[in-house]
Predict the structure.
Amino acid sequence: MDFKYRWKNSAPPTRDQAATSDSLLDESQFTDEKDRQMAEETARKQLDVPTRIPDEDRPALPHAGPNPVEGEEIQQ
């Protein structure tokens, strides 16, 4: 199956690269963020890697964030 979008580095990424990368496609070819997101999902499906979810960067628990820096006090 041909893919009609340009890849970010002119070649399809490996599955490992695709799984960890935020963006797989060349962003200059899109005028709308929604179109880019739909194309990214299609690219991930073609490479057989999981699609990203909108709140993936947010912690699951409201107070669970990055670990505090050593020597820094924990605020409660």
